Amino acid sequence: FPADTRQKKEGMGLIQKYLENYYGFKKDGESFIWKSNSPMTKKIKEMQEFFGLEVSGKLDSGTLDLVQKRRCGFPDVAG
Amino acid sequence: FSTFAGEPKWAKQVLTYRILNYTPDLRPTHVNAAIKKALSVWSSVTPLKFIKKDRGDADIMISFAARGHDDFIPFDGPGGSVAHAYAPGKGFGGDAHFDEDETWTKNTEGTNLFYVAAHEFGHSLGLFHSKDPNALMYPVYRKFDPSVFRLHQDDINGIQYLYGPSDT
Fold it and tell me: Would the CB atoms of B140 and A50 count as touching at under 8 Å?
């Protein structure tokens, strides 16, 4: 199902950029395959918790909707 | 609400601001009005007062810029990040930058300058993002009716935690 795979990759690219910009996520050669304990999954969970979404660590529609919205450019996790 | 680490805040109650440049999306008078109204959101519930300067340094320097703009945090074109601001402090501290690639408006279309500015000035005064989706300091932009804007109690609690309530 190539179309679905492409959409998923685009979504993962989008959320990766979002996590880099606003959650201090540093990509470390991780593939787009979902792993329950990966640094990216942990960051997605952190973001979902902040926004009151279901904390699944997965790229669900609610999470994808949120990362496409306009927002303040200041990170949600301040050092 | 939440504050920045170390709770930076201004040690004075009278702060100055300066608009360094204007977006072509709005008339300068409309920009001036939106910025003044956004600051009054905070001054109405605290002892803070804001004075506009037309030259020289100011506590809150306000500018419109696209992509890279010399602070190492470039904007990203239309959509996504619409603005950012810095916590109280010297230099960049308190400054607010607005992404010129957005379409700035004074109504509900595009990106409402007053609403975004009010959020950013919350950062300029020391507030960090709120998890309450109805709070002004929630990081995601939402459409709203400018004629019925009312500061959320979470934002009031946050700013009064830093500066106390209004004198009047």
Answer: no
